[in-house]
Amino acid sequence: MTNDTQTLQDVLTALLGDQLVSMQEKLGETTIVISAANMLPVLTLLRDAAELRFAQMMDLCGLDYSEYGEEEWAGRRFA
């Protein structure tokens, strides 16, 4: 795996295609967002792709919007 952030982002974009909801780089770390339905295939690809070969996942995050904001939430509850 490369340490070059732009190359990593290019590889992720090419390999994940439409499974990639969003990606951003902050403080030297690349964060990707995928849908829950694509979690297993994406995690498998991150591990098995010769260009990546990730060996450890640091964070897996989810959100519950059931009590988000001042008013009743109208969107999807979980993200």
Tell me the layout of helices and strands:
Elements lengths: L4 H12 L3 E7 L2 E6 L4 H10 L31
Antiparallel strand pairs: 1-2
Characterize the structure shown.
This protein has helices spanning 5-16, 39-48; strands at residues 20-26, 29-34. Strand 1 and strand 2 form a beta hairpin. The relative contact order is 0.14. It has a two-stranded antiparallel ribbon. The protein is an alpha+beta fold. The chain has two helices and two strands, in the order αββα.
Short description:
This protein is α+β, with helices and mostly antiparallel strands.
Q: How many strand segments?
A: 2
**Share of helix among residues?**
25-40%
Shape: elongated
Integer average pLDDT: 88
Report the order of strands and helices: HEEH
Strand arrangement, largest sheet? 1-2
Strand content: 15-25%
Which stretches of 5+ consecutive residues score pLDDT under 50? none
The N- to C-terminal Cα distance equals 29 Å
- Indicate the radius of gyration in whole angstroms: 15 Å
Number of helices: 2
Structural class: alpha+beta
